[in-house]
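Show me any protein, keeping tokens residue-aligned.
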Amino acid sequence: MANAASGMAVDDECKLRFQELKARRSFRFIVFKIEEQQVVVDKLGGPTQGYDDFAASLPADECRYAVYDFDFTTEENVQKSKIFFIAWSPDTSKVRMKMVYASSKDRFKRELDGIQFEVQATDPSEMSMDIVKDRAF
């Protein structure tokens, strides 16, 4: 097995879709998965989809990486947006899968320039909208 920390390739589509989310706001979220020793795009969430759609797109028993573009209004009534990186590693996923995702996370995250916050979650309560809001403010 290749060294997962340094041997994990990142498909060019991952960076391309992330740039579209960041610059053109083409997507609300992107879910990534590791497949055949590389990170690939798993799902794209349209700009009108919300956080519930995003949370529902994560599998209950498999790890994923994801980015979510969170829009909010400050107390000064200013529209803002923050990009969250979510490392989804449910307790029910296989140990080997958890290890591969954990060892590859930092390298993959470095490929995505513009992430402001990171959330690590093992069940939906650890990435609730309240947690996202608390981090953004």
About this structure: The domain at 4-136 is CATH 3.40.20.10 (Severin). The beta strands are 9-10, 29-35, 38-45, 64-73, 79-88, 117-121.
